[in-house]
Design brief:
By secondary structure, this protein is an alpha+beta fold. The protein folds into two domains: 207 residues; 152 residues, Gcn5-related N-acetyltransferase (GNAT) (Aminopeptidase, 3-Layer(aba) Sandwich). It has twelve helices and twelve strands. The protein has a twelve-stranded mixed sheet with strand order 1-2-3-4-5-12-6-11-10-9-8-7. Strand 9 and strand 10 form a beta hairpin. Helix 7 packs across helix 10. The protein is globular and about 60 Å long. The protein starts with 5 loop residues before the first strand and ends with a helix.
């Protein structure tokens, strides 16, 4: 099993050191304006995982805040998707739950393997020393629930079983879309082939990573915010110019942009490998341009092509499910695992409610509707 699990304030693994170095120096708001968290690192067996530790921070991005995920984000979705007659009562219900969740300190959590992104692939850790790791975290933060994010059967099935055996609540979180590196479904997709043809059409210049420069990143951050913050939700991480530029300079993510004939960047996508799985945490485009330009379709083809070229799986996160299904994506349920048995009853009750609602309502709906 290796040495005893350790918790440190700085990472030793090379990729983690490079990824988190400026965040540890500057603070997490340097990375995203709505992200306030403490970082630490768990060494267990042959692996090292980033931890984020919170106490309250009710306005945090959902990637560090269960309250934001289950209350603030949900209220936005209700207002956006439901007619007023139905949405108002639901919104009031969520507001009431939010008051309870605050009183029960829902945000007093440690999140394991949190790379400050929505999608955080796991290495092939089977959890042999899981119980020892949990003891180490509970000793350092005895009043915190411990949450393992971004778990799914394709990447982390043995760890899911180990967590269940350790007494964790296994709570459905969202449905992600997965592409194997050699997926026949992608090759068979006429929609994907059309998207690739659009990407290569030539009316927009495709700008590869090396052709970008420092000055481009104000525009790149603006386009990301247009899509993820303005169009989707203020609860998404509001990444800064400095953080995106840092990820580009260090080649931690591979950036691709689209320029129009006037030289203006109208779209951007960035993807990268973590534990052998490709993710695409940065996408943005000018939402005021005509839909006929099909900017999202072009950008969505980039990570799929990149994953196929490298022969690695692609975890394309959640959202626009029908779009991804038509392009060969396979639906996979994502879970969080919550360790809270060491907490008093008033702290555990909200997680019992979240677990029940997620299993009874969220999971059936997202599976049926392919959200």
């Amino acid at each position: 099993m290796g040495s005893k699990p350790q918790i440190t304030n700085e990472p030793s693994e090379e990729l983690l050191r490079a990824w988190f170095a400026p965040v540890l120096r500057q603070g997490t708001r340097w990375c995203a304006r709505n992200l306030q968290t403490e970082c630490a690192f768990l060494k267990v067996e042959n692996w090292e995982f980033p931890l984020t530790i919170n106490d309250a921070e009710w306005d945090n991005s959902w990637i560090c805040s269960p309250y934001t995920h289950y209350v603030s984000y949900a209220r936005e979705e209700v207002r956006r998707a439901m007619p007023t007659a139905i949405g108002v009562p639901f919104s009031l219900l969520l507001l009431g739950l939010g008051t309870w969740f605050r009183a029960a300190q829902l945000n007093q959590v440690i999140m394991v393997n949190n790379w400050l992104m929505s999608t955080n692939p796991w290495p092939p850790w089977e959890g042999a020393s899981l119980r020892e790791a949990l003891v180490a975290m509970r000793q350092r933060w005895p009043g915190h629930a411990v949450i393992f994010r971004s778990l799914n059967e394709r990447e982390s099935a043995p760890l899911l079983r180990a967590l269940k055996d350790a007494g964790a609540r296994i709570i459905p979180s969202r449905q992600i879309w997965y592409y194997d590196g050699d997926s026949a479904l992608v090759l068979a997709s006429r929609d994907f082939r059309k998207d690739v043809n659009l990407l290569r059409r030539g009316d927009l210049q495709r700008v590869v990573h090396e052709q970008l420069c420092d000055a481009d990143f104000s525009r790149i951050a603006e386009l990301y915010a247009q899509l993820y913050i303005d169009k989707y939700s203020r609860c998404n991480p509001c990444y800064t110019v400095e953080w995106l530029r840092y990820l580009w300079k260090g080649r931690h993510l591979q950036f691709t942009a689209l320029r129009d004939n006037a030289g203006v960047i109208v779209g951007v996508e960035a993807c990268g490998l973590i534990h052998g799985v490709m993710v695409s945490p940065v996408v943005g485009y000018d939402i005021n341009r005509p839909r006929s330009m099909a900017l999202y379709r072009r950008l969505a083809a980039v990570p799929v092509l990149s994953a196929r070229e490298r022969g690695v799986p692609l975890n394309l996160s959640a959202g626009v499910g029908r779009f991804k299904a038509l392009r060969g994506g396979e639906p996979v349920m994502e879970f969080i695992a919550v360790i809270d048995a060491h907490l008093p009853l008033k702290r555990r009750l909200p997680w019992s409610v979240i677990e029940g609602l997620s299993r009874g309502v969220l999971e059936p709906v997202v599976r049926r509707m392919k959200l």
